[in-house]
Design brief:
Length: 245
Amino acid sequence: MSVRTNMTGAERTADTPIYENFVTNTPYLGTLFQLKKYLKNLRSSRQILNSALPDPNQSTQSHMHLPKISLPKFSGNCIEYVSFWNSFCAGVHDLTTISNSVKFSYLKECLSGPALLLVKSLPLTDASYNEAIRLLKENYGQPEEINRNLHISLRKLPTVHSNHGPEILCKELSTFVDEFEIIYLQMLEQNFDTNTLSIQMEIEGKLPPPILEEILKAKEAGNWSTDKLRNVLKTILKRKLGVVP
């Protein structure tokens, strides 16, 4: 059509009988009209469909992906429960853009061992998420049980020996200080009173005479506390590590 429209003069005159014969034998104008009408109907149907569908931006937000962070893991050690739950709250629980059933799915991915078995049979629903939280807190979030397990951990700290040479002493003291630090921070996280004589005696009972002598000298300064004991042990370890090659 565009070629014929651009024709002028003799070209158009010569083309007219050919064009009329083509139109007579090939009624393409009617077909073209039908195609345009069909395309118009398609566009109208598309608009109706788009208006019926939810906003894709809102859908993306309501099922948004979690931030790319490592979600915490929990297998059933009650000492680790509070730390686990605080991390899970920051990464999943406190989000307002995902449903509780989705949160429950993420929670299951974080669990293993006895903790997973506790909630594994619950269906993947919003209500089940709240029930799973209740079960986990009831079984692993009780302060008395956590306190008991922390004191058991203190009693299980390895004994430091001084009669196996300075190198072994430093190695054992380093392990002791690191493990005590973990337990101490867990106690602080639980808001437990760490400044008790029983805790200090438990720690001192694991140490050899040479280190106890240094602790005794540090006590003479007064205002002794478990935190000061912790810092004195770190100072002793740093000094000994500087001596041992």
